[in-house]
Amino acid sequence: IYSGDYSGIDINSTSTEFSTNPNIAEIIGILEESKPSLGSHLKGFKLPVPENAHDMRLLSDVNDIGFHIVWDKSCNTEPDYCFTIGLEYSYDHPEIMLTGLPFSTAKRLLNDLGSEIRKGQKFIDENQCINISSKKFMVKKMRPSNYRHYLGYFLWFYRSLKPRPVVMQLFWPDESDKFPWDDGYSEKLLKSQPLLFEKLSS
Length: 202
Description:
Blueprint (H helix, E strand, L loop, with lengths): L21 H13 L18 H12 L3 E5 L8 E5 L1 H5 L3 E5 L3 H16 L11 E3 L2 E7 L5 H4 L1 H6 L9 E5 L31
């Protein structure tokens, strides 16, 4: 489940008019009519109108799988990262993002989490470790002021909502099972996992 760079999307648009493209109308119809309960807990939510093939793929994945994974390969000193779109809409669960891992590993982790979330599992406890594939992880609630820098496509999907839904950042430990906020965390990994529950320095 892959998505490319969506930094150019107009996340502030509130248009809800349907496209005359029959494929787009069909996808919107499937989401809104065949699964009317999806998103019903999100007061005021309206599905965004897809404007290109990427948007259609996202909506199709949300309909068929329950969520879509966006991968952003950084072109500068920041780490690569990925995040889900659709967990909140489909399962009333915060979206999840993580940074600093290869795409294949990150995708597998998010898909494993998605499978558990479909079964009713919640990953929202910020003080408890969670086990995925025999490894421990932790989640922290992402600071909304950091959404725009990292989650452009998430903002596009949920643009009809204010405030935007919660996003949990998934953290992985270093070789000593320490997390970025722990004393003694590996210095070489510090830039791999920015603490997005804190305010980013300007």
